[in-house]
């Protein structure tokens, strides 16, 4: 099974998304269900004879199934983790068969609020059910079944993707040999939930939102999405990174005494907000941030994280970044201690970085060296 074409060294080259249809209803943690659904995914490398070299990559809030490579008709459409995945890269596609999946509720082709609700013939919109990290993992397990993969060599993710990797080790402990959790946490802090709520309110209060059924009006709650992304983007960067890149530089070299853009950092945030509002779906943003808020493996164990991970069997690689204040190293160490308490095999890397939460997406040599070393030791 190989979805890539011949390519230059270091890249998986031209790739194409695939679709998997599921007609068995999926029970959701919210109490509802999806009668049928579709997942969009991509694969890189070749699945070996006993399907023992498969690695699942789980995406973060605004990520997608497009992890590596480019599309033939979009030469600039490089995958969001292309610096990590490919021949000779830390996650080497000469050795591993890598899968990226767009989560349910997403806006990149998997069934979500933009999809047609078969019961009404209209987009799901506000009627799309709440989905959780646990629901995503269950749907990914069904995809693995369809691909003939009984056990993953590793499940890997950063941020929200790391939470999915964690949940895989709990929901399907016999189907994951290695859980790799990057720049994540076992649950959101109160501050993180607060940031998410402000971002959601920016969308919910946009007059163009129409209660989530803006598709029928042919419009997008652009202002709400812009504000949500601007707020979120601030939390993905460190103060040092923003200071080094923008400082207090003025766009026009002097104070203009107006409420338009004066500082370079303002210009950058406006650009990021406008770009995001041009491709991401507001309902998907709401659903995904709520899934982040709800994730808490220790919830059913009276907050005891050690008890929550008593059923895990995988080996773990945990990585954090020193300037990531949204998912700080202390949160990763909290997870490490819970895993060690259960006698699990844990490798932990606390990496120096000035880039904040976004560090997990960057091509940092120490970070990638740690990842490369860990993947090299995974037997397939």
From TrEMBL:
The keyword Transferase applies. The active site is at residues 159, 324, 357. It catalyses: L-homoserine + succinyl-CoA = O-succinyl-L-homoserine + CoA. Pathway: Amino-acid biosynthesis; L-methionine biosynthesis via de novo pathway; O-succinyl-L-homoserine from L-homoserine: step 1/1. One of its GO terms (molecular function) is homoserine O-acetyltransferase activity. SUPFAM superfamilies: alpha/beta-Hydrolases. The record marks 326 as: Important for acyl-CoA specificity. Substrate binds at residues 229, 358. Keywords: Acyltransferase, Amino-acid biosynthesis, Cytoplasm, Methionine biosynthesis, Transferase. It is found in: Cytoplasm. It comes from the Bacteria. Its main location: cytoplasm. Pfam families: Abhydrolase_1 (PF00561). InterPro entries: AB_hydrolase_1 (IPR000073), AB_hydrolase_fold (IPR029058), HAT_MetX-like (IPR008220). Residues 53-363 form the AB hydrolase-1 domain. Its EC number is 2.3.1.46. Belongs to the AB hydrolase superfamily. MetX family. PANTHER family: HOMOSERINE O-ACETYLTRANSFERASE. Transfers a succinyl group from succinyl-CoA to L-homoserine, forming succinyl-L-homoserine. Homodimer. This is Homoserine O-succinyltransferase. The gene is metXS.
């Amino acid at each position: 099974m190989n979805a890539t074409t011949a390519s230059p060294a270091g890249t998986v080259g031209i790739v194409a998304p695939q679709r998997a249809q599921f007609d068995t209803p999926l029970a959701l943690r919210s109490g509802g269900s999806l009668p049928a659904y579709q997942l969009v995914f991509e694969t890189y490398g070749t699945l070996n004879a006993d399907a023992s070299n498969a690695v699942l990559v789980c995406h973060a809030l605004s990520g997608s199934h497009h992890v590596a490579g480019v599309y033939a008709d979009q030469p600039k459409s490089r995958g969001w983790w292309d610096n990590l995945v490919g021949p000779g890269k830390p996650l080497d596609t000469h050795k591993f068969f890598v899968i990226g999946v767009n989560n349910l509720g997403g806006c990149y082709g998997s069934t979500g609020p933009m999809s047609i609700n078969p019961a009404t013939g209209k987009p799901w919109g506000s009627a799309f059910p709440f989905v959780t990290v646990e629901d995503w993992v269950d749907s990914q397990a069904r995809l693995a079944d369809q691909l003939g993969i009984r056990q993953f060599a590793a499940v890997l993710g950063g941020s929200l993707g790391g939470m999915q990797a964690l949940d895989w080790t709990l929901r399907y402990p016999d189907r994951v040999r290695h859980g790799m959790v990057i720049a994540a946490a076992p649950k959101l802090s109160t501050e993180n939930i607060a940031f998410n709520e402000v971002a959601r309110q920016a969308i919910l209060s946009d007059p163009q939102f129409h209660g989530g059924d803006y598709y029928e009006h042919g419009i997008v709650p652009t202002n709400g999405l812009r504000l949500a992304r601007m707020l979120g983007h601030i939390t993905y960067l460190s103060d040092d990174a923003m200071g080094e890149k923008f400082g207090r530089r003025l766009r026009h070299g002097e104070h203009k005494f107006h409420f338009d853009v004066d500082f370079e950092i303002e210009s950058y945030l406006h650009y990021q907000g406008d770009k995001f509002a041009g491709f991401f779906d507001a309902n998907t943003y709401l659903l995904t941030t709520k899934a982040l808020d709800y994730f808490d493996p220790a919830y059913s164990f009276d907050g005891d994280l050690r008890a929550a991970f008593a059923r895990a069997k995988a080996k773990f690689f945990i990585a954090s970044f020193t300037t990531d204040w949204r998912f700080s190293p202390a949160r990763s160490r909290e997870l490490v201690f819970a895993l060690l308490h259960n006698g699990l095999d844990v490798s932990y890397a606390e990496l120096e970085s000035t880039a904040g939460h976004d560090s997990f997406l960057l091509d940092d040599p120490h970070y990638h060296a740690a990842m490369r070393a860990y993947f090299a030791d995974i037997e397939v």
